[in-house]
Amino acid sequence: MTDLVLTIAHHLLVFSLAAILAAELAMIRPGLSGAGLKRVGVLDLHYGAIATAVLAVGFARVYWGAKGPEAFLGNWAFWSKIAAFAVVGLLSAPPTLRILQWRKRARSEPDFALSVADVAAVRPFMLAEVAVFALIPIFAAMMVRGFGQ
Question: Which residues make Cβ contacts (< 8 Å) with residue 98, sequence separation at least 6?
Fold first, then answer.
């Protein structure tokens, strides 16, 4: 039963992470200001919290799941999945820092709105996040099918 609960939680968290990334991509556009910037900031805060939960639940699955750590720790597909997740995390840092800067600026300058240049500064990182994020379920599917052992 523990394995089932951990697996369900892990999948729901990963899907939530993908949804937040998609929402941020859709929301960050020229002209975004005020309350919209605040919403993006709250979303980004949730993105970080959910990413942390994904790691915690994922490693709980490794150690307390039905297969046990020996099924994962020697598997290159598992480590590739972890590496992809780490790269997504690194790619998310520049947009997060920019969002924090924008929110601070919006508090001090009520008329502040994102420019084309502001969006262009973070969009490549976010698109790269999406591309690398897509590798995670690929590696997961490989693991389930016995690849990487």
Answer: 118, 121, 122
The residue count of the chain comes to 149
Does the structure show a pLDDT above 90 at 30? Answer: yes
Residue 148: per-residue pLDDT:
82
How confident is the model at residue 133, as a pLDDT?
98
Please list the helix, strand and coil fractions of the chain in percent, rounded to the nearest 5, in that order: 80, 0, 15
pLDDT at 149: 82
Distance CA 80, CA 46 (A): 25
Give the single-character DSSP code of 9: H
Q: Is the pLDDT of residue 33 over 90?
A: yes
Burial pattern 59-85, b for ≥16 Cβ within 10 A else e, equals: bbbbeebeeeeeebeebebbebbbebb
Which residues lie closer than 8 Å to 122 by C-beta, 6 or more apart?
28, 94, 95, 98, 99
Q: Is 130 exposed, middle or buried (0-12, 13-18, 19+ CB in 10 A)?
A: middle
pTM of the model: 0.92
